[in-house]
Structures are given as C-alpha cells and as structure tokens.
Amino acid sequence: MNQLKHAETANKSIKIVSILGILFIAANLRAPFTALPPLLEPIMDAFWLNSIETGALTTLPLLAFAIISPLSAPFSRRFSFEKTLFFALITIALGILWRSLGDMFGLYAGTCLIGVGIAFGNVLLPSLIKRDFPQHVTSLTGAYALMMGAAAALGSAVVVPFTTHLDYITVYCADNMEYPTQIGQDVCHYRATPSSQ
C-alpha cells in the first residue's frame, strides 16, 4: 500500500514538472520573435539598415518556420520529443546570445537560429501534450497558448525600457571609467617626469 501511494505521489510530481516544462517552453516560443519589432528603429539607426534589410530581418524567422517545420517530426522520431525540444531551447538561447553580440552578421544569424528553435517548438509541443496528457489536451493547449501570448506581450512591453536602461548603464560605466583611467595616466606621467631639485 505504501509503495502504491509513493508511486502515485511520484507520478503526480512528474506530471506537475512536465506541465511546468511545457509552459516554460511555450513562454520561449514567441517572446524572442515579438520583442524585435519595437527595436527596429534603433536597430536601423545602429546598423544603417534600409527598409529591404529591415524587412529581411523580420522575414527570416518566418522562412525558418517554413523550412524547418517539416523536419521536426523526423528529428523527434530519431532523437525523441524531449531531446528535440531541449535542442530547440538551446538553439533559441544561442540565437538570442548571437543576436546580442552587436555585429551585423550576428544580428541576422542569431535571428535565423531563433527561428529554427521556435519552428521545432511550434510543431512538437502540441504533439507532446497529446502524447503525455491525452485526457487534458484542450486545457493544456489553452494554457500553453495563453502562456505564449502573455510572454509575447510582456516581452514587447519591457524590451524598450530594458534596452534603454542598459544604455544608461553602459553610458554611466563608460563615463565613470574615464576617471580612474585619467588618474592612472596622471600617475604614470608624474612618475615618468624627473623631479625638480
């Protein structure tokens, strides 16, 4: 009896962790994409992009969806749903990191990687819900769709203030770094100057 209760408790814990994992994945399937449009104007100014180049930047994830989505099912059959979704999250994280490095190539390549990861997640997450929670497909599908929408809205709302705050921090650090640098230069200059007798 105790073993049966322990098994039921463990099974419930696994299901709760699985649901939280599904919601976590869902939160990462829209925000990296929807956070880009509010920053298009400063990105255009920073990289001197024209309208065609800017349009290509927003189109790359859609192209990745079209190309990668048919490959998601074969990948999941070969490597399992869990490993493929983990790969999708890692790909999204690497894309965000690469896109944030500040160079033109990273901007486009990182956006492509984000599109690849999201394409895998878009196809496999509903299938994972049907496989693991066949009794709760409707409720969990609604929950993960709500999570995607909430994360997308939150990302779009905070990305501009967050970026502005980071710019202020960067400017502050750059301004304050001038003082120790100047002090160091003065000290070196003083030590290099022969003392007057």
Question: Which labels suit this protein?
Answer:
mainly alpha, about 200 residues, elongated
Explain what you see.
Helix 1 crosses helix 7 (137-192), helix 4 packs antiparallel against helix 5 and helix 4 (51-79) packs parallel to helix 6. The chain has helices spanning 2-27, 31-34, 40-47, 51-79, 81-99, 104-132, 137-192. With 197 residues, it is an all-alpha fold. The model is unreliable at 168-192 (pLDDT under 50). The chain is built from seven helices and no strands.
- Tell me the structural class: mainly alpha
Helical coverage, percent range: over 70%
Number of helices: 7
Number of strands: 0
Summarize the structure.
The protein is mainly α. The chain is built from seven helices and no strands. Helices cover 87% and strands 0% of the residues.
Secondary structure blueprint with pairings:
Elements: H1 2-27, H2 31-34, H3 40-47, H4 51-79, H5 81-99, H6 104-132, H7 137-192
